[in-house]
Amino acid sequence: xxxxxxxxxxxxxxxxxxxxxxxxxxxxxxxxxxxxxxxxxxxxxxxxxxxxxxxxxxxxxxxxxxxxxxxxxxxxxxxxxxxxxxxxxxxxxxxxxxxxxxxxxxxxxxxxxxxxxxxxxxxxxxxxxxxxxxxxxxxxxxxxxxxxxxxxxxxxxxxxxxxxxxxxxxxxxxxxxxxxxxxxxxxxxxxxxxxxxxxxxxxxxxxxxxxxxxxxxxxxxxxxxxxxxxxxxxxxxxxxxxxxxxxxxxxxxxxxxxxxxxxxxxxxxxxxxxxxx
Length: 277
Hints:
Largest sheet: 5 strands, mixed
CATH class of the largest domain: Alpha Beta
Shape: globular
Helix content: 25-40%
Order of helices and strands: HEEEHHHEEEHEHEHH
Number of helices: 8
Number of domains: 3
Distance between the termini: 13 Å
CATH architecture of the largest domain: 2-Layer Sandwich
Number of strands: 8
Strand content: 15-25%
CATH topology of the largest domain: Nucleotidyltransferase, domain 5
Structural class: alpha/beta
Mean pLDDT: 89
């Protein structure tokens, strides 16, 4: 494990705000319970505060950081949270907390990646699923880069139910889709092209979020012919295969929109090649 940054974690210490070279000394080791491997400990020369090499890493205060990579791989391989807890001999609450931690790391990696990316051709569409019950329908809006197939932006929102006699009537898609498209502004080149199907609702959303982008609408095509929407269709097909909660015929359901978003962040990180842990 690499040494931590040369800075005292004590905010009241002068070395915390103005770190100097060799401002801390090596002072023994600590042995985590999960693997008993020695982790170097250090002591600040100014205030005497002790700290370890893991104190400045994302896994700080985690009792089982060894599970992070396993949970990351299993979560995007069609496995449910209960089955992961069974195979890894831990509690479902541990799985939930690990997924939340990994989702936060995925968002940070994605922000750094988008800061270096520029593209001129993007495809957008929506995937339909549900929250806990079939009539509680939600929409997953997503924008994909055609050249690489990587996900650039996504969002989840409620949509009115197709079932009669339900109170699930709120439609949050306009707000979600406009926000999802606006997040594309920094990475789109001048005169970029945005492709979608011919859903009439997309026209005002694109015009409001990306007024300077050329919007091209294609009719969805099925069969052994050229499909201009193949990149987004392929991404949605992989999502339904890789995430148990999105399978067409399943008894695995999502309980909250926030949980679905966290799981989607893991899938984005997996397909983009981000290293989480």
